[in-house]
Amino acid sequence: MARRSDHGRPDDPPAPGGAPVTLAFMNQKGGVGKTTTVVNLAAAMASAGRRVLVVDLDPQAHATLHLGHDPADLGASVYDALLEPDRAPDAVVESRHRLWLMPAEVDLAAAEAELAAEPARTARLGAALDTLRGRFDVALLDCPPSLGLLTLNALAAASAVVVPMQAQFLALQGLSKLLETVRRMSHGVNPSLRVAGVVLCMHEEQTTHGREVVADLEAFFESARGTDAPWADGVVFRPGVRRNIKLAEAPSFGQTIFEYAEGAPGARDYQALADAVLAHLEMLKQGEPAPPPAVVVRATAEPARPAP
Ligand SMILES: Nc1ncnc2c1ncn2[C@@H]1O[C@H](COP(=O)(O)OP(=O)(O)OP(=O)(O)O)[C@@H](O)[C@H]1O
Ligand SMILES: [Mg+2]
Questions:
Q1: What mean pLDDT is reported for the chain?
Q2: Which atom of ligand 1 is nearest to the CA of 143?
Q3: Phi, psi of 94 (to 5 degrees)
Q4: Which atom of ligand 1 lies at the shortest distance from residue 39's CA?
Q5: How far is the CA of 157 from the centre of ligand 1 (A)?
Q6: Ligand 1 pocket, 238 CB below 6 A?
Q7: Which of 50, 64, 75, 116 would bridge with 103, disulfide CB 3.0–4.6 Å?
Q8: What is the pLDDT of residues 194-204, one digit of tens each?
Q9: Which domains does the chain have, with CATH numbers?
């Protein structure tokens, strides 16, 4: 299935402005739905006409495998691009129509250690993506479940952060730490970094606990409106993605949910979510204020709620 991409395809006009919208899908907690969201949003955005690049920044190579590519069969990877940013074009594989992949490989774990000794160690991914300007409209970065150097590279390169998470009280605690990392990056190497919002994964809308956590999240974003916090325009994206077994099965077939089970709730949720994310990005581009969240129960300054 993997085809080495021919650069500068004549049917691909350069993206306006040259630089893609680059979204880092980040949560240091494992198993929250980052990869599932990156792969299926990428597929939905590609079918909506965007030229999409998925960058697999996780040594587990789950996004690479989910898209049906064997990391062992591929040539250059994101590892090579990080160590030698000029090699990034060699590391791009055409995966689907309008969907490209910069794959991971297991050596990526070693890259993290090697990078630590390099100059500009958090700017490597940004430099790699710079060599691809004009080829993509959107780049989706699948981060590993840690706040290490690979994730910091994503934050340094991204225009915005999207946080896949479950609506659970303990997840809110992790969010505070994550946002602190984003704030540090926005005060340092990437002043234009923003938090686009939260994607609710494996979401159970019908539970009281889930609804309360979502209300807290929305109140948190609302309380930041008009401030200089990177999450001042953040939203809880709707719809939440329901728990759907087809989403868990699709990776073992190397297929997106749209290929594996087009009519499944998971496909409908990710299709609608892609529309919501694209609309939000469009609105941010035009500098319009974000709409108020649908439900605001109480305003809290921090994304944490005292235990009942
Ligand atoms: N909405 C959903 N319904 C059912 N299963 C899901 C859903 N979203 C994700 N999963 C499953 O949950 C598991 C974790 O999801 P995923 O791999 O996307 O998380 P992750 O945050 O990328 O994990 P890691 O931190 O290890 O990279 C996977 O087995 C995935 O198939
Ligand atoms: Mg993952």
A1: 88
A2: 27
A3: -80, 120
A4: 18
A5: 24
A6: no
A7: 64
A8: 999 999 999 99
A9: 16-285 (3.40.50.300)
